[in-house]
Each structure stands twice: as C-alpha cells, then as structure tokens.
Design goal:
Largest sheet: 7 strands, mixed
Structural class: alpha/beta
Distance between the termini: 51 Å
Number of strands: 25
Length: 697
C-alpha cells in the first residue's frame, strides 16, 4: 500500500502485538511471539529527518523457513509453528518443482514426517538414510540448503537425491530403491565398532519393500539385533492394518521405553527360575502371541524379531514426535509404520499421485505439440502392434508400466502385462521362466535399473539362450536425475553376454524392425534407446536389418574420414556430415546398429581406405562399442587413425540431456568440432594406434 513513511511507522507501532525496530528505513516486527517476521520498507530511505518522507511501503511476511539453517533450529519451534513450517515447505517444493521439474507427490507426502524426524533426532550425529532419496526435498530444505533450493536438478545446482558431497546431513548417496536398510545397518554396525553415539534411521517406502535386497537386510538385522529404526512410509495401503482402539493402544504400549524395561526384567526373572525358566518363557511368549493375534493380523516384522509400532498418522506431527522419542530409547530393532498421503497438500497430486510422481518443468509442459514421438512412445506403439498380431507376446516391467510406455498395451491386453514391482532381478528371471515355458516376453526396464540384474541376464537368460527381449529405456545421457540414473553403462555391462544380440536403433523405423526381429529370435536380444525425441527416419535407415551389419547414412566421393556412430547419434553425425560437405570437407557416416554381434569381415571392408575413423556412442568409452570396433579393425589390419568419442567412466551430475551431450562433445557441435580439428590438418602420419580424442570445449 502507499502511505507516508512516518505514517507507516506509526501504524506499525500502534499494533499491540508487534515489537518493532527501525533502522535505516527498515521495520522488523515479531508477530505472535516469534511465529512470523514482518518487514516494512520505504522506497525512499529517510536520510534527512527534517524532510517529509513518502513512498511505497512494502509489508513482507517473512517465513519461518528463512530462519532454518540446520535441524537444530527446529528445536525451539512449537507445534503450531511446526505446522506453519510444513505449509511453507510444501509451498516451496511445489513452486520449485513446477519450475525445475522433479519428484513432487512423494516429497509432499513426507513433509510432516521429515520435520518430526529432524525435531526428535540430532543429525548428523543421528543418521537418517532415505531409501531411493526422491522424497528428500524437505530434508534438504531443513538442512541448510533452502537458499540454493531453486537450483535443484539444474546443472551446477543441488541434486534431486541425497548427496554426501552436498551436506554432512546426507550420509549415504541413494537413487535406486531398496538400498536403505542395508546401508543403514552397515552404518549402525560401524557406530557400534567405533563406539560412536547416535541412532540410525532408515526411511523406506512400501513400494521399495518389493525389492529383494530389502528383505535380505531385514533378515540380517534380526541376526545382528542392532537397534535399527525403520520408518515404513506407507502411502498406498497398510501392510498391517490397524483394528480399532486396542491396536493403537498396544502399538503405543509396545513402543514405550517403560514397557520395554518392564518386559526385559520379567523375561530375565523367568529365565532365572531353575529348571523351568526356559519352559515358562516359551509359554509366556506363546500366550503373548496369542493375545496379539486377537487384535493384529499376522505381522511379518514381529516374526523377524522387530518391535512393530503402528500404523500411525504420518501427518500428525505431535504423534510422530511422541512415537519417535519413544522408539529412540528402545534399544531394539523397530519398525514404525507410518501412513502418509502421496501428494499431500496439492489437490491434483493427491487425486493422481502417479501422474505427479515425476513432473516436467512448467516450460516443458507448455509445449503441447511435438513433431515426433519419443522413443518410449514409439516402443509402446510397437509393442501394442506386435501384441495384437502374436498372442504369445507378453511384457514384464518393474514398477514402470507408465514410464516405459507399456500402458497402452496394458489397457488393451491387461492379462499380458506383468508389473512385478521394484524387483528387477525377479523381473528378469520371471521372464526367463516365461520364455522357457514357450511365451515371448519383453522386459521393459530403464537402463540404470537394469544394472541391478546383470547376473540374472547372464545366469538365467543368456547361458540358457532363452528368447527374452530387453527394452532398455533411458539409455545414454538421462539428465536431471543425476549420477545414479545415467544409462551410460549398459553397453559395457552387457556387451560380453553370450548368445546375446544388442541393438541400438537410430530412428523409429529401425526400432520397429529391431523389435519385430527380436520377437522371433532364438536367443536374448537387448534393444537400447534414449530418453529423447525420435529423429525423422533417414531413407538409408529403412534398409532391412542384417545381423552384425550397419548401414551407411552418408557416403561421399573421395571421403577420407569415417564416422561410425551408434543409435540416434548416427543421425546427428549425418547432419554434421552435411554441414561439413557445405564447407568442402567430405565425411562418411556409418550407423553401427549392432553392438553385438559384429560382422568383422563386413566391418573391415566398410572401413577400408579411410585415413581417420571416429567412433561415437552415448555410453562409456571404457568397455564400449568404440573399443570393440577399434580392436576388431586392428585385427583385420585396417590402418587408420582412430578417435573414440563417448562418456568418461565417472558418473555425470545432474543437467539436461542436451547439456550432458554438449559437455562431452557428443552433440552436433561437439562432433563437428572433433571432426573439424582433424580435417583441418589431415595427413597420414603412419601411426595407426588408437588415439583417445576429446573435443575442445
């Protein structure tokens, strides 16, 4: 509002619930005993008190979050302030995710839980491990990263997952599901061995418990009997539903330190009774289980030796804090079953949490018309067409039905699409069983998650020569999700698998041909493709597939330089060839198509006569297709200078796919720069050993 500056001061001073201070035109007011801060600032600072000052007075409501620089700052806040802070966190998360993209629904669902954890525990002395880590945004905001939160998932900004390099409060890097329990147990054992104080808490979602690794960790916890605190964030359905008030009472009772102390003393007294102690203890335990069975359904965690608390309301901060205070003092392994609502506080996300799990930036959502589909969409359409023709074709995915593009097939053929949950290893071996039984399974899993099932591909599929098709979505540079989600390792990991074909389509036409051939193949096939828009079909790309052989996308007279490129990068290299031709430099482009097998004789003939040969791939150079090609050409006595373009082995931080390709010299400009640097001074040096070449940045 617009009032004279002095009048604004008088207005503020007259408010009885304000304590004001004036300094250089700035008023600061503490509202309601410290819940809010209000600033009033004049557009004209009153330097001359003898003159009447006027201007625009801005009253700004300062947020509690502005004063939270570490979890210790939560200790002085009361319940009312904690709920206000929860609202501020949600508003900050929603605003930032709308701008940058990221995981929305999962983060909104754990705001109160995160506040309660940091209110009760003392990070970093007490360790909190977030399973997957895609729900750690509130944690980041409460641990000193609010000021830079607007740059989350951007190049050079915060990661969208916990990162040890970012904060002492991020004790373990996570990005894949089902790892938290194993990591937390290891951290707790290390504390024990080093005689360090502090609790260890693992926060794991109900979906992550479908991963076998989580069950392996649960078994080990019961073996070591360490006081690991597991927060089971159940945001879909109860694993062990509560039954009335008695269940809630028994949960609270079993959580209390007093109850545990009494129980320990009674157990000790019973066991000390000569001759009959063990017998009486067994009777008491059976009676206790029988009584619990009246009020509880069977509880898996109790059977493993855990104390079980819950289910409790995951959005009730006082109840959460009360329970956490008590389990902190237990000294036993405990599971706290917390019920939360995914997308809490944002209506659309609450109604459709799956759609708001991962959100694109608002700028990207404004682009509603795309000239070409994504590779994922092309895969989904191809699968739907193939399934309509062949009733033996089925699909398997690991909690990524929508993300992998299988939703259309699932709608049309619901009984032929299997979502096994976050269980990649099981997905692969389950598909192996389907194939052994005569079906034609297609396993659709992101490249980064497929890394978890390398042994199953080798042991259960490749050695058995079973006709399983693997659709590796998100291969190559993935983007804003950071190191854990880059799909740059699949070639190096799977290239040596026996009996296996690996294909990388450069366009939609090749993708359709690849899947049609793979469905009728006699052994396993891996088809890798990126998270990107499909290029327009180059005429040469429509040439029929021949096992182990690629195709020339550009063939120019008197060209002395050849680019052997894999996947969509072959299309980029073809455009670079056209650009260089306009400048008088002739470069041929060979689309590799097959990572394996490779027709060595055909490859040697195709590469004969060139002075310089470049290989380009969106995978790591070490163990990649480039190294294979160079080795094969050397064995075939092909003499040329070799240049391998690809990613270094170090995982890539968060950035857009375009930024990652640019930084590694794998976009059109980078390929152009690499070629131009050699073409400008091209001469036969007589040296034909591999040369690793990095384009100038």
């Amino acid at each position: 509002m617009r009032v004279p500056f002095q009048d604004a001061i008088d207005i503020v001073r007259d408010l009885p619930w304000l304590h004001c201070a004036r300094k250089y035109g700035l008023l600061q007011a503490l509202v309601g005993g410290g819940q809010h801060r209000v600033c009033a600032r004049s557009a004209i600072s009153p330097k001359d008190t003898g003159k009447k000052q006027s201007g625009v007075i801005l009253f700004v409501l300062m947020e509690l979050l502005d004063d939270i620089h570490s979890p210790a700052d939560l200790k002085s806040l009361n319940d009312k302030e904690l709920y206000k802070l929860a609202s501020e966190l949600r508003r900050k998360i929603i605003t930032t995710v709308k701008a940058n993209g990221g995981h929305l629904a999962s983060n909104l669902g754990v705001v109160e839980l995160t506040i309660a954890l940091h209110k009760v525990f003392e990070s970093p002395k007490d360790v909190i491990v977030w399973d997957t880590g895609h729900q750690s945004y509130a944690h980041k905001l409460l641990t000193g990263r609010a000021a830079c939160f607007s740059e989350i998932r951007k190049k050079g900004g915060l990661s969208g997952f916990p990162k040890r390099s970012e904060s002492i409060h991020d004790v373990f890097n996570t990005g894949h599901a089902s790892t938290s329990l194993s990591a937390a147990l290891g951290l707790l054992e290390a504390k024990k061995k080093r005689k360090e104080a502090g609790s260890v808490v693992a926060v794991i979602g109900d979906g992550a418990l479908t991963g076998g690794m989580a069950f392996e960790a649960l078994s080990n916890v019961s073996q070591l009997k360490l006081p690991l605190i597991i927060i089971l964030n159940d945001n879909k359905m109860s694993i062990s539903p509560n039954v009335g008030a008695i269940s809630s009472y028994l949960s609270r009772l079993s959580a209390s330190a007093r109850y545990q102390s009494i129980r320990t003393r009674l157990d000790s007294h019973l066991l000390s009774i000569p001759r009959f102690g063990s017998l009486l203890m067994g009777v008491v335990n059976r009676v206790k289980r029988a009584i619990k069975a009246i009020f509880y359904k069977e509880n898996f965690f109790v059977d493993l030796g855990f104390e079980y608390v819950g289910p409790i309301d995951g959005h009730n901060i006082p109840v959460l804090m009360n329970v956490l205070e008590q389990v902190k003092a237990l000294g036993r392994p405990v599971v706290v079953h917390v019920l939360t609502k995914k997308g809490k506080g944002f209506g659309k996300a609450e109604e459709d949490p799956e759609a708001f799990h991962g959100v694109a930036p608002s700028s990207a959502r404004k682009v509603t018309i795309r000239p070409n589909p994504t590779f994922t969409q092309a895969f989904g359409q191809t699968m739907q067409e193939i399934a309509a023709r062949d009733p033996e074709v089925v699909a398997v995915t690991a909690a990524m039905c929508l993300g992998t593009g299988l939703e259309p097939m699932k709608e049309e053929f619901p009984s032929r699409v299997y979502d096994v949950g976050i269980a990649e290893q099981h997905a692969v071996t389950f598909a192996a069983g389907l194939a052994a039984g005569g079906l034609r399974p297609v396993v659709a899993i992101y490249s980064t998650f497929m890394q978890r099932a390398v042994d199953q591909v080798w042991h259960d599929v490749a050695i058995n020569r079973l006709p399983v098709v693997f659709a590796l979505d998100r291969s190559g540079a993935v983007g804003e999700d950071g190191e854990t989600h880059q799909g740059i390792y699949d070639i190096a990991l799977f290239k040596s698998m026996p009996n296996t074909t690996i294909f990388a389509p450069s366009c939609a036409a090749e993708m359709r041909m690849a899947f049609q051939d793979a469905i009728s193949a006699k052994g396993p096939t891996i088809i890798r493709y990126p998270k990107s828009i499909v290029e327009n079909d180059d005429p040469a790309s429509k040439s029929p597939l021949q096992p182990g052989r690629g195709v020339f996308l550009r063939k120019k007279a008197k060209a002395q330089t050849l680019v052997c490129a894999l996947g969509p990068l072959a299309q980029a290299a073809a455009r670079v060839s056209d650009r260089l031709a306009a400048e008088g430099f002739m470069v041929d482009v060979y689309s590799i198509r097959f990572v394996r097998p490779i027709d060595e004789v055909f490859l040697a003939a195709a590469c004969e006569g060139y002075n310089a040969i470049f290989t380009v791939e969106d995978g790591v150079k070490a163990g990649g297709v480039g190294e294979s090609l160079v080795a094969l050409l050397a064995q075939q006595s092909v003499k040329a200078r070799f240049f391998i373009l690809g990613f270094d082995s170090m995982p890539l931080p968060q950035a857009s796919r375009a930024e990652l390709l640019h930084d590694e010299g794998l976009d059109e400009q980078g390929i152009y720069a690499s070629l131009k640097a050699v073409l400008a001074d091209q001469k036969d040096t007589g040296i034909h050993e591999p040369v690793y070449f990095a384009a100038e940045r």
